[in-house]
Each structure stands twice: as structure tokens, then as C-alpha cells.
Design goal:
The chain is α+β, with helices and mostly antiparallel strands and 160 residues long. The protein is 19% helix and 32% strand.
């Protein structure tokens, strides 16, 4: 038995178009997208751990889980990010704005080219620069950026 690679990182979002646009502006590519409902997702409710959970807020629907997915990938095809918007059931817990030292998974790190231009582009489109771009031991330029819904990216550019 061996692990071959990480297949994808999943991010649950409320505003799927905004988060998708953020990652496209960042440079990821759409691998696929669509709505997931019906028989397939009913079987998947057990895998998702959501069996029997109904929409608590809007009792207008008898449907169980239904969601929208956008699968993104890095230009080199080595890493994928799955964005998921649950239309039902909803989760009443609001989006958190964690600090970079909050326990749990807090950021996704990317090796990038031209970090200054990338940060400039992202901040023009509403991303928040959490830290200045700094040099780490003359090996990397590093910084943290917060995108929509509190998503934190660590950017690292190798200094040659």
C-alpha cells in the first residue's frame, strides 16, 4: 500500500461564483462543474455524513442533499481544488475569518512566479494582503492573502 498523491482539497463555500472567480483570477483552470442531485447524491449522503438531515431554514423542499461543484486545477495539472456549494441542507454556522495561526487547516500554499504582480492583481479584485511580501533566507519571497469567505493562500516565489 502506498499513497500516490493528494487528489484534491475541498472547500465549502456560500458564494460559489465569487470564490470561483477568485481562483480563476489567481490562475487556476476549470476542470469541470455542475449540479449534483438526484439518486447519485442520495447514495452519497452516507459518504458525506449527511443522511437524514433536512433543510432547517427553508422547509419548502423535501429534497435531501443537493449541491453545486466546481473542480479547479493548477496550470501544471498537479493539484486540484474542489469548490462545493451546498444548496441543501444549509449550515447555520457563518463563515469564519480565522487568523493564520488558528488551529486546523488554515491555508493552501502555492509556488508562484512574479509574486508582486500576482498580489497586485488579487488585491485590485478585492483580496486582502495579510502580510507584506518578505524574503525568507534569500530562498523565497512569501506572503499570505485572504480571498472571499476567509480563504487564505500562502504564496511562495523561489528566489533564484
Amino acid at each position: 500500500m502506498k499513497i500516490r498523491k493528494i487528489d484534491h482539497v475541498g472547500i465549502i463555500v456560500n458564494d460559489l461564483p465569487a470564490v470561483k472567480a477568485f481562483f480563476l483570477d489567481f490562475g487556476l483552470e476549470v476542470l469541470g462543474e455542475g449540479k449534483v442531485e438526484g439518486e447519485w447524491v442520495k447514495r452519497m449522503e452516507r459518504v458525506l455524513g449527511l443522511q437524514g438531515i433536512k433543510e432547517d431554514v427553508a422547509k419548502t423542499s423535501d429534497s435531501d442533499v443537493n449541491l453545486e461543484i466546481v473542480m479547479l486545477r493548477t496550470p501544471d495539472g498537479e493539484a486540484n481544488i474542489e469548490l462545493v456549494k451546498f444548496n441543501a441542507p444549509s449550515n447555520p454556522i457563518s463563515i469564519q475569518q480565522p487568523l493564520t495561526n488558528t488551529k486546523g487547516i488554515q491555508h493552501i500554499a502555492f509556488n508562484v512566479e512574479d509574486i508582486e504582480a500576482l498580489v497586485n492583481n488579487l488585491t485590485k479584485k478585492g483580496a486582502e494582503l495579510i502580510s507584506d511580501i518578505y524574503s525568507y533566507e534569500n530562498a523565497y519571497k512569501l506572503c499570505y492573502v485572504r480571498g472571499p469567505e476567509g480563504i487564505i493562500l500562502e504564496l511562495a516565489e523561489e528566489i533564484k
